[in-house]
């Protein structure tokens, strides 16, 4: 790399590749793409990859001319075939999919989503989900968590660190020691809809319920209102567990003592990974199972519904989870919706999605987000999953 002529050649190549991509000139582009890495070169200033260039050139009626979208699609397909990366960010913090979405180019957006699904599924098979780094490179990053998969793995909040960290409790949020939002009150409407979909009104009384992750107890309060026959909670964080031991806590000793039968209302202490093998041995099955943890990545959720849900869910039961995968970027949310759908089918489960309006949440650092390190939810809609065994 010390040879200056080499770097000039590389730079020239980059510009030529980007130009061919933006002209949707497949014939000019193809020879470049034979060289590994060329499909994902980046302009040092704009951060544009050939995908960005090809998509940006589709800004509607540029110079009064209609864009030939079929040619653009061919170029985008060829780039993906040649190893282009679906979630590289440009200097405007946009993936090619974000750009296609912003420009209203649905077909190109769809190609990006499909490529994302293929890439993530492949990485999943290799046992490693790569998740998109969200903001600019140097920004402090938050967790890869099932609430908001959007982390740069270097700076993840991992489960072990989270479980060892102090927590800050307040009326409208639960924060970890780094001010990451573990649970926030704005999620209440999502919890309400989740309970309604797991235990439809009218057929909700006297059911057997398992909830993983107590958090602020929002969903457990709603579950308790249905007067369950069995209500089991699994919680791992020592600070949350300490609260649950307080004499007057709504899910404290008095709640456990109010069980219709011995052990019917109970909090199991520890990580679900450790508790569930024993619980499975007891032969309990549930009508409703909900999963919402923190500090864990998608592979944990997948392990849960692949290895444990089949043994724990009644044959007519329903399983739900907090669907926060990729929730601070539409294209990631769409990719993960499909990834999880495929993995659920592999686990013998079918999923129904319900769109829930989240409403207008405050801006970064404002309102509910004040004091929260990162606004982990930016989408207006929540896609609520309800799963049952495949019929
Ligand atoms: C997002 S909160 C749950 C919020 C809850 N749905 C509510 O309505 O308030 C996540 C909870 O999962 C717990 N948790 C994280 N990892 C866990 C694990 N491996 N096993 C059990 N609980 C875990 C956290 O301590 C936290 O209390």
Automatic annotation (TrEMBL):
<dbReference type="GO" id="GO:0005737">
    <property type="term" value="C:cytoplasm"/>
</dbReference>
<dbReference type="InterPro" id="IPR026480">
    <property type="entry name" value="RMT2_dom"/>
</dbReference>
<comment type="subunit">
    <text>Monomer.</text>
</comment>
<dbReference type="GO" id="GO:0019702">
    <property type="term" value="F:protein arginine N5-methyltransferase activity"/>
</dbReference>
<dbReference type="InterPro" id="IPR017408">
    <property type="entry name" value="Arginine_N-MeTrfase_2"/>
</dbReference>
<keyword id="KW-0808">Transferase</keyword>
<dbReference type="InterPro" id="IPR036770">
    <property type="entry name" value="Ankyrin_rpt-contain_sf"/>
</dbReference>
<dbReference type="GO" id="GO:0005634">
    <property type="term" value="C:nucleus"/>
</dbReference>
<keyword id="KW-0949">S-adenosyl-L-methionine</keyword>
<keyword id="KW-0963">Cytoplasm</keyword>
<dbReference type="InterPro" id="IPR029063">
    <property type="entry name" value="SAM-dependent_MTases_sf"/>
</dbReference>
<feature type="domain" description="RMT2">
    <location>
        <begin position="155"/>
        <end position="391"/>
    </location>
</feature>
<dbReference type="GO" id="GO:0032259">
    <property type="term" value="P:methylation"/>
</dbReference>
<dbReference type="InterPro" id="IPR051038">
    <property type="entry name" value="RMT2/GAMT_Mtase"/>
</dbReference>
<comment type="function">
    <text>S-adenosyl-L-methionine-dependent protein-arginine N-methyltransferase that methylates the delta-nitrogen atom of arginine residues to form N5-methylarginine (type IV) in target proteins. Monomethylates ribosomal protein L12.</text>
</comment>
<protein>
    <recommendedName>
        <fullName>Arginine N-methyltransferase 2</fullName>
        <ecNumber>2.1.1.-</ecNumber>
    </recommendedName>
</protein>
<keyword id="KW-0539">Nucleus</keyword>
<keyword id="KW-0489">Methyltransferase</keyword>
<comment type="similarity">
    <text>Belongs to the class I-like SAM-binding methyltransferase superfamily. RMT2 methyltransferase family.</text>
</comment>
């Amino acid at each position: 790399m010390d040879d200056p002529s080499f770097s000039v050649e590389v730079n020239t190549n980059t510009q030529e590749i980007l130009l061919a991509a933006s002209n949707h000139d497949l014939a000019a582009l193809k020879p470049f793409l034979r060289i590994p890495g060329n499909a994902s070169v980046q302009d040092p200033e704009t951060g544009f990859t050939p995908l960005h260039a090809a998509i940006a050139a589709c800004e509607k009626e540029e110079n009064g001319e209609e864009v030939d979208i079929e040619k653009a699609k061919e170029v985008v397909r060829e780039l993906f075939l040649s190893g282009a990366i679906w979630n590289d960010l440009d200097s405007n913090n946009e993936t090619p999919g974000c750009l296609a979405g912003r420009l209203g180019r649905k077909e190109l957006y769809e190609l990006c989503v499909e490529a994302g699904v293929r890439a993530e599924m492949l990485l999943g098979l290799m046992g490693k989900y790569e998740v998109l780094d969200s903001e600019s490179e140097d920004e402090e990053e938050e967790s890869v968590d099932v609430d908001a998969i959007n982390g740069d793995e270097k700076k993840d909040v991992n489960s072990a660190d989270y479980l060892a960290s102090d927590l800050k409790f307040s009326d409208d949020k639960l924060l970890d020691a780094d001010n990451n939002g573990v649970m926030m009150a704005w999620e209440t409407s999502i919890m309400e809809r989740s309970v309604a979909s797991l235990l439809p009104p009218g057929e909700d009384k006297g059911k057997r319920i398992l909830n993983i992750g107590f958090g602020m107890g929002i969903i457990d309060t709603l579950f308790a209102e249905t007067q369950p026959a069995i209500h089991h909670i699994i919680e791992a964080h020592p600070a949350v567990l300490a609260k649950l031991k307080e004499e007057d806590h709504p899910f404290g000793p008095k709640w456990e003592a109010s069980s219709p039968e011995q052990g019917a209302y109970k909090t199991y202490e520890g990580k679900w990974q450790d508790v569930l093998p024993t619980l499975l041995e007891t032969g309990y099955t549930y009508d409703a199972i909900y999963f919402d943890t923190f500090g864990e990545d998608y592979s944990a959720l997948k392990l849960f519904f692949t290895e444990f849900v089949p043994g724990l869910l009644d044959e007519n039961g329903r399983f739900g989870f907090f669907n926060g995968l990729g929730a601070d970027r539409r294209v990631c949310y769409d990719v993960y919706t499909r990834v999880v759908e495929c993995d659920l089918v592999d686990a013998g489960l079918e999923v129904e999605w319900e769109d829930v309006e989240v409403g207008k949440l405050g801006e970064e650092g404002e309102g509910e987000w004040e004091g929260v390190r990162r606004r982990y939810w930016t989408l207006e809609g929540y896609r609520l999953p309800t799963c049952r065994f495949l019929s």
